[in-house]
Specification:
With about 260 residues, the protein is mainly α. The protein is about 45% helix and about 5% strand. Helix 1 packs across helix 4 and helix 2 packs parallel to helix 4. The chain is elongated, with a radius of gyration of 21 Å.
Length: about 260
């Protein structure tokens, strides 16, 4: 079962970087050694590695112990690549946010003020945001693994039913989806296969006897975030291109196509 449906659930905070790391990175950005054309590879590798760890945890196996070129291997390889591309965009955005602090109304920010503000930004990206992203990596890769099993059994178990946990913490838009049954191959699952939000706990039940829900006149909730309107197993991704991290400045879009010169696995 997906264990991430209530956004109010407390997420265990990750502490991937030591205080010394923040000091060194802030100094490097202030001195111009790290910038939007020279991102920090150490930060990138640490973040991508942690999110990849989440992928393997959610999927149930890691790529090193999976038979080469097997369906599981191919899926894990695609999910891992997506996580690395996402990590590149994340490091770009956090660097962009810190670099913007170097000046204030065309005046150069003092180092002491810059350091204080930069630490807050870096803590948001590498603790608060990263903790939620790690949990999402777990749930989306679990979803991808589950979808592979659903595909295997769809000839005999051709129906899926959307289920919430049913307690008082279920979000309204997820409650609207509760009980909807559609065929496995229905395009409805391209958008609304769980998880459908940060910390979504929703799940599906596969069967051969569920009655197909008539969706004529049904208005699907528009509050399900677009960054979650995808099927991890079908699209073989953990993070959607609709995520704000992929909102790249026009001048950097060609650079982004090269993954910001950051290495892929």
């Amino acid at each position: 079962m997906c264990s991430f449906c209530d956004i109010e659930n407390k997420v265990e905070q990750l502490h991937l970087f030591e205080e010394e790391y923040y000091d060194n990175l802030i100094n490097a950005i202030y001195e111009g050694k790290i910038n939007l054309r020279q991102l920090d590879v150490f930060t990138y590798n640490k973040i991508a590695g942690k999110l990849t760890e989440g992928v393997f945890k959610g999927f149930g196996v890691d790529i090193e112990t999976t038979l080469y070129n097997s369906p599981d291997y191919k899926m894990l390889n695609e999910l891992r690549k997506n996580v690395y591309v996402f990590s590149g965009a994340k490091v770009y955005q956090e660097t962009r946010a810190v670099v913007s602090l170097l000046t204030d109304k065309d005046k150069i920010t003092s180092f002491s003020d810059f350091k204080k503000q930069a630490k807050t930004v870096l803590a948001d990206y590498n603790q608060n945001y990263l903790s939620a992203e790690y949990n999402s990596a777990i749930s989306q890769s679990r979803s991808a693994s589950q979808w592979m099993e659903i595909e295997k059994d769809k000839e005999t178990l051709g129906m899926l039913t959307y289920n919430t946990v049913g307690d008082g913490r279920v979000r309204f838009e997820h409650a609207m989806l509760n009980g909807i049954s559609r065929p496995v191959d229905d395009k409805w699952w391209d958008k609304f296969y769980p998880p459908n939000g940060w910390n979504c706990r929703c799940d599906v039940t596969q069967s051969d006897d569920a009655i197909k829900t008539d969706l004529r006149g049904f208005r699907t909730p528009d509050t399900v975030p677009k960054i979650f309107q995808f099927n991890a197993g079908k699209q073989r991704i953990v993070f959607s291109k609709k995520h704000p991290y992929f909102d790249i400045a026009d001048r950097d879009k060609d650079f982004a196509k090269m993954n910001f010169n950051l290495p892929l696995p």
